[in-house]
Amino acid sequence: MPKEISISHLVKSEDLNHHGTLFAGRMAEWLVEGCFIAASKLVGRPEDVVCVQIHGMTFHRSATKGDIVELRTKVACLGSKSITVWGRVLVNEDPDPAVTGMATFVTVDGQGKPYAHGLSLSEEYIQQNKEIHELAMRMKNRN
Question: Which residues contact 25 (CB under 8 A, 6 or more apart)?
Fold first, then answer.
């Protein structure tokens, strides 16, 4: 069963935009990294995982210099070759997410050709993560 991944970062001066808040590009980098780690741990071969789509990030509130941001990511759904991962960002341990987002990865061989990963999610896991699973399925059906 996939595990939730947690990564923390200290927001430093070089992470800020001209408003003095966390730069969206830095947050995107951190979110994709956290999602990549969740997908890679599931596959077991990080070299076989590549990002094909960032489904967006929603900023609910900002972070500033000195804040600790914690990214928590988990697998939302699987296709035959794809892994969609949902992430949320907590600031200074506030339980309400400051940022949420989702990214999809595919498994590729040494020549960069997609291959079927053969993974599946249990019904129990899907039920425990029903909200993010349904969100990922809606995103998938838009494409």
Answer: none
